[in-house]
Hints:
Elements: H1 3-16, H2 24-34, E1 39-43, H3 50-63, E2 69-72, H4 76-88, E3 93-96, H5 104-112, E4 118-121, H6 129-141, E5 145-148, H7 153-156, H8 168-173, E6 181-185, H9 190-200, E7 204-208, E8 216-220, H10 226-239, E9 243-248, H11 251-263, E10 268-271, H12 277-288, E11 294-297, E12 310-316, H13 322-329, E13 339-344, H14 349-360, H15 364-373, H16 381-387, H17 392-404, E14 408-411, E15 414-417, H18 426-447, H19 453-460, H20 473-476, H21 486-497, E16 501-503, E17 531-533, H22 543-552, H23 557-569, E18 578-581, H24 590-601, E19 609-611, H25 622-632, E20 633-635, E21 646-653, H26 657-668, E22 674-681
Parallel strand pairs: 1-6, 1-7, 2-4, 2-5, 3-4, 5-6, 8-13, 9-11, 9-12, 10-11, 12-13, 17-22, 18-21, 21-22
Antiparallel strand pairs: 14-15, 16-17, 19-20
Helix pairs in contact: 1-3, 2-3, 10-21
Amino acid sequence: MDPIAERASELLRELAGPQAELRPAQLEAIEAVVRDRRRALVVQRTGFGKSAVYFIATRLLRDAGAGPTLVVSPLLALMRDQVAAAERMGVRSATINSTNPDDWFDIEQRLAAGELDLLCISPERLNHFRFAREVLPRLAAGLGLLVVDEAHCISDWGHDFRPDYRRIRDAIANLEPTTPVIATTATANRRVSLDVAEQLGEDVLVLRGTLDRESLSLGVAVLPSPAERLAWLAQRVAEVEGTGIVYCLTVEQTEQVAAFLRSQGIDAASYSGQTPADQRIPLEQAFKANEIKVLVATSALGMGVDKADVTFVYHLGAPPSPIAYYQQVGRAGRSVSRAEAWLLPGPEDRAIWDYFTSVGLPPEHLVTRVLGELSEVPISVPTLERLVDLRRTRLEALLKILDVDGAVQRVAEGWIRTAVPWSYDRERVERVQEARRHEAEEMLRYGQSPSCLMRLLRSSLDDDGAVECGRCAVCTGLGDPVTLDPAVVRAAVEFLRGVDVVIEPRRQWARGGTGDLPKGNIAADGRAEEGRALCRVGDAGWWPVVQRCEQAGLADDELIAGVFAALKRWPWAQRPTWVTWMPGDGAGIAADVAARVGAAGKLPVHATLALAPGDGAGGANSSFRLAEVWRRVGLAGPVPSVAGPVLLVLDRCDSRWTSTVAAHRLLGAGAGPVLPFALARV
């Protein structure tokens, strides 16, 4: 046997056990980087053993006297699993990330002393000023292997959400020409492959295997309402053996779904990018130990937790592309003979996709406006936010994109314009947008497919060997395994109607405000109390009832019953003593609701607020929105001399500036505490 093959087989058995056998495709990839010092893209299905390829390659290269391996990885949970797996093979490993700053110096010292074989970092670390200036050049000069794990992120995230992925190209350019590079992913269609190859450089070897998953059966369940989708999940999760994952499109959804499943006696927990760091590791460990039946997660778990015995993956709402969907369903069936993945698409999916796309790729005129406000004199983000009508998140994302392109630079005092020529790459943006539209359409077709789901999914990922699987719900003709129990559906509706939607009071005026706009903290005697909303726009609870009443122009008995139930659950310190409402631009029903609440509660109702004419558009960011609301919201007359809190009824709560300014006006005129209550929160 070839010496590389023989030693690689021995190392694999150290990692995976005495029965493990090296796949031909694994050996081909190992030989490409160890013997031939190539730059290679490895596209293989989840569970194939891509991590083993670069662990083994690291050992072989280190044994031959090469330097350490640098792994660029997208998620903290994934880094933790990679370090643990590498250590099991005798690869001395560590990670530098945002959760272990106290360890950075020691890790860097071990790296410099040759005591580490592998270092795992995020792409953002490539732009960390000290790491980029001090550690990376020294590391690059003697690097044995560079690994870009989950390389599809270069294409899926690198254009917008995590532009630091595009810095990988610069890191590769600074390597010695003979330094091997390997990029791995389970999900690369031709678009992604081209994007990755562009980052890796010339003469990239693409090693592509089949994307079929013999253990995985796919299905689609089309249900008309969110409540029915919740009921479906509760029934199926309770029936299916083993542990699994429910993916949602938003953080709020994960928390809501997990709470409903728990209400149905299912051990469920939510997991997202907003889960506190000190809770993530215990959750991951409990899930791996089968102490939790189901994790309800966003895409933050899509690549993050290495658990081989997942038996089900369900999606409440479709991801925006087949790439994301295949990556996520691939968490199931890695070491079990049968696993299932069901998609529960919703009519709101496309709107969510469009929102995230709009955040990531700002239009040309906004980019031009931002660049026009920058110069060699540093400017802070709050000040820039005042000058350009962009939300903070979009503005910061845009600055990161421009930073990667070299057009702007972050300094201690803020941001400056560099001397690097830059122009809006309209062709690239349009190409990315068109690709995403195409992939979104493919996901819609998947949700309506009358033919084999696995073949369709593989074909959308440019797997030329795609054939009918014989396992999916379409091939078998077995269809949806769940017959909805009306009692569970009713429970889902009641659950959604009983969810308290909190309106947090603003405690600071918008930074960067000009003219007569207030600045700094909002004084305690000038701000609203914590408020409530009956529902969120688009939810399955009270939103359909709110819509129906708005169309009719009147609040009916069912809506008022819901309003009173929400008011009853509200833990206010003192009951309202009178009621007012905020007039709107359209045909709202806040005035009618205020009148009905006042009549039922025997509370006086007063029209104390006025809304000056305007187009209703407001602004995109807080500074512009506050300026518009401050101009338009005023008092219609004197505030009544009624002691005690006032209930302020609004049709909508979006930015919270309307309720904040309205409360400020009322309190300034002598009203008691202001309790905002919105029929719907956006």
